[in-house]
């Protein structure tokens, strides 16, 4: 049993170091840096009645949606400029002068440049195609975001129900049972083999509780990410 516990502890440490390595690489700091996480939320208090609002919020505020809309606008503006460039600029002029007979001469001129070899048709068609492609990409992004939101809400709700099955009274009774089990072994009230089996069952139950707490935290983070909310202010944005 001690070997199993040592293995679990070492496995948890390996997982922690793996996450730390990934985080330090993304932050651009040395891996041996000491990381201190401030204001770690105990849980994400997300109002389930406002889940529909998260979808609308995401479709407006997710950065990929914003960037794609700006790209579409830019392509449309460029297409308009190319169309305008096809139309030659009409130039009107006038003059007043004396001719060779010393007489006053007044005249007007109109110039209309004609493009013979270039009419921007290729660039226009290319921009139209790029615009249609960007619009299609935007629709795909919206479908993906809807799926992410629905999936994140489903997981968060499921993990919340799972965590609610562990009442505070149950957790307290598990802790008391573990303490009582140790005393029972010391006083000889229970056989060691039976005590080990009972302890393992209690430990597994407590581990399930810890895993449920971890899962709801991670699902809450994923829900905030999928909805495009700022992480540090996620609770306020959702609740208010």
What does this structure look like?
The chain has two domains: 1-36; 45-87 and 119-239, no CATH class. A two-stranded antiparallel ribbon has the order 1-2. The protein has seven helices and two strands; from the N terminus they run αααββαααα. The radius of gyration is 35 Å and the shape is rod-shaped. Helix 3 runs antiparallel to helix 4 (121-164) and helix 5 (168-186) packs antiparallel against helix 6 (192-227). The protein has 240 residues and is mostly helical. The longest helix is centred in the middle third of the chain and has 44 residues, at 121-164. Mean pLDDT is 81; it is low at 234-240.
What are the SSEs and their pairings?
Blueprint: H1 2-27, H2 51-61, H3 63-86, E1 91-98, E2 104-111, H4 121-164, H5 168-186, H6 192-227, H7 234-239
Antiparallel strand pairs: 1-2
Round the Cα radius of gyration to an integer and report it.
35 Å
**Major beta sheet summary:** 2 strands, antiparallel
Strand order of the largest sheet: 1-2
Counting structural domains, the number is 2
User: In angstroms, what separates the terminal alpha carbons?
Assistant: 49 Å
Taken in chain order, the helices and strands follow as HHHEEHHHH
Structural class: mainly alpha
- The count of β-strands is 2
Mean pLDDT score, rounded? 81
What percentage of the residues does DSSP assign to strands (E)? 5-15%
- The global form is rod-shaped
Instruction: Return residue spans where pLDDT drops below 50 for at least 5 consecutive residues.
Output: 234-240
Question: Helical percent range?
Answer: 55-70%
- Count of helical regions: 7
């Amino acid at each position: 049993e001690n070997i199993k516990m040592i293995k679990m502890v070492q496995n948890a440490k390996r997982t922690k170091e793996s996450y730390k390595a990934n985080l330090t690489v993304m932050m651009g700091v040395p891996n041996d840096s000491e990381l201190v996480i401030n204001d770690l939320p105990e849980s994400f208090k997300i109002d389930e009645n406002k889940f529909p609002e998260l979808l609308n919020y995401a479709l407006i505020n997710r950065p990929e949606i914003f960037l794609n809309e700006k790209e579409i606008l830019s392509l449309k503006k460029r297409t308009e400029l190319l169309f305008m460039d096809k139309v030659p600029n009409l130039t009107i002029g006038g003059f007043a002068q004396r001719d060779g007979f010393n007489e006053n001469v007044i005249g007007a001129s109109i110039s209309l440049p004609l493009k013979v070899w270039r009419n921007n048709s290729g660039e226009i068609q290319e921009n139209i195609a790029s615009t249609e492609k960007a619009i299609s990409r935007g629709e795909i992004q919206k479908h993906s975001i809807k799926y992410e939101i629905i999936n994140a809400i489903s997981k968060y709700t499921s993990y919340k129900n799972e965590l609610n099955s562990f009442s505070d009274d149950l957790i307290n009774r598990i802790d008391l049972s573990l303490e009582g089990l140790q005393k029972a072994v010391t006083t000889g009230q229970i056989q060691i083999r039976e005590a080990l089996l009972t302890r393992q069952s209690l430990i597994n139950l407590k581990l399930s509780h810890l895993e449920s707490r971890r899962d709801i935290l991670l699902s809450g983070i994923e829900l905030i990410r999928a909805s495009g909310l700022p992480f540090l202010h996620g609770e306020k944005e959702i609740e208010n």
